[in-house]
Amino acid sequence: MAVTVRRRVDFPMIDMADIAFYPRIYDLAHRCFEEAWALMCGVEYHEMLYEWKLGYPVVDIASTFHGPLRYGRTAVMTMWIESVGASSVVWRYRLEDDLGNLVWTSRQVTVGVHMDDMSVRPVPEDLRRHLEACTPPEGA
Amino acid sequence: MAVTVRRRVDFPMIDMADIAFYPRIYDLAHRCFEEAWALMCGVEYHEMLYEWKLGYPVVDIASTFHGPLRYGRTAVMTMWIESVGASSVVWRYRLEDDLGNLVWTSRQVTVGVHMDDMSVRPVPEDLRRHLEACTPPEGA
Amino acid sequence: MAVTVRRRVDFPMIDMADIAFYPRIYDLAHRCFEEAWALMCGVEYHEMLYEWKLGYPVVDIASTFHGPLRYGRTAVMTMWIESVGASSVVWRYRLEDDLGNLVWTSRQVTVGVHMDDMSVRPVPEDLRRHLEACTPPEGA
Amino acid sequence: MAVTVRRRVDFPMIDMADIAFYPRIYDLAHRCFEEAWALMCGVEYHEMLYEWKLGYPVVDIASTFHGPLRYGRTAVMTMWIESVGASSVVWRYRLEDDLGNLVWTSRQVTVGVHMDDMSVRPVPEDLRRHLEACTPPEGA
To answer: Model pTM?
Structure first.
């Protein structure tokens, strides 16, 4: 099942046009991605990075910006897994604000690598099982 | 009384030395400062900025970095008010991690300004009353 | 003709894996985009924003991350225009480091808006002429 | 003698009040600090970090914000060394814009550490000699 993480929209995210500056949407998405691991797989991302030496950098992203994210709102990020390959995991993001306005959707291909040398690593079986259970929300 | 805000330490805060990059401690402090207004004065900072047209930029900061903030920890930011002047408010910050390790202390002088032209504005009486009640925590 | 902007890779761009954190590639791309306007069209982006009240936020991005951008390198960003519509401009980015390693390619659809109310605006004819002259580099 | 580094003020530095957001002044200062090492001591900071395993994190900062840094301006950062201790180096910063408006001054105490374990390290003699030659500009 998809997971959802909520975050305040903080002042540092906002630009001179009074909307979240778009690279900070990606920054926000990474912060939510980090939180998602515990919700999806029961493991903290910092444990994966430091103890398992396993990270998931992105290699390909497609995103659409549907509307502005404004100061004073809460970001509501829903995330699910499109597919799990031998070493890759394809994430989907749907960002709304707390009024239900659609802000941003994204499809991100990540690849598992060893944190010491960035060599590609297969998706561990226990992660795969949990990730594959993160199916899209209804209507997505 | 002092207020405390907790935030996850996210990956984007961490540098190549595996500790929070120091300008991002100031960024974190601003995010906590924003949350503090509701706790201290019952008003959201975005309402002050957008509806009252009142902001509090910093004009003077003194900070000491006591120890590293690491990935996987939670930032625990305690804030109180040292003094309220005609238009200035002096904030104090004490940042620990969730293990109780002291990370950073800071004294920040802010000045109330009109958001349209940055002209100095007196501290409204209702804010003053609430801010003056934010006395230091024991032992600070 | 395509334009190229060079920037040092600064410490704040680097993450704990010793490579540029990917949202900061988008941040870097925006900084280069800003510089590109003067090179492409002879107008500074801040003049467009403040005096013409014309901005070009992104609405759609597709990006591929080909390899890491490392500290100590220089970012070499080449930019050209794929097409100019009634109000949209499609940018292409090709980021290499100064050793010629390919880092990132991106296609970004931007739309001209009025900075006061974000209403869509047609591409001014003088901009259109200059933008259409920014053809791809050889081999792209 | 003091050294000076110039940087464009980029859009990502600017907040909703149309001025550089103050934590990004510290971020900018670090980028200039990095450039300063080559000018002051003839060594690139990334070489110090990666090859010498020597870094200079800050432990104490005092700063005054004198006036806003605006979009469209160029940041002109002048840096010199106040003193060199057994392992510490005290930096001074003076930030103006390209119109000569004073923006920010700062005094930052840094301490040399080994990048692997953050243990304190003495200032190498060749660095000390170069750093001590970075005397204040006239009138500072």
So the answer is: 0.97
The 3-state secondary structure of C61-96 reads: EEEEECCCCCCCCEEEEEEEEEEECCCEEEEEEEEE
Task: Choose from B13, B16, B46, B110 for mutation: most chain A CBs within 10 A.
Answer: B46
- ipTM for the predicted complex comes to 0.96
What count of other Cβ atoms lies within 10 Å of the Cβ of residue A117? 7
Residue with tokens 């934590």: D23
Residues listed for chain D:
140
CA of B88 to nearest chain D CA: how many angstroms apart? 14
Domain-wise residue ranges, chain A: 3-132
In chain C, % helix, strand, coil (3-state, to 5) comes to 30, 35, 35
How far, CA to CA in Å, does D135 sit from each of B13, D80, D81, D104? 33, 6, 6, 19
Enter the tokens of residue B54. 């009142």
pLDDT digits (tens, 9 = 90+) for A32-85: 999 999 999 999 999 999 999 999 999 999 999 999 999 999 999 999 999 999
**What is the length of chain B?**
140
Distance from CA of D134 to the nearest CA of B (A): 24
CATH superfamily to which B3-132 belongs: Hotdog Thioesterase (3.10.129.10)
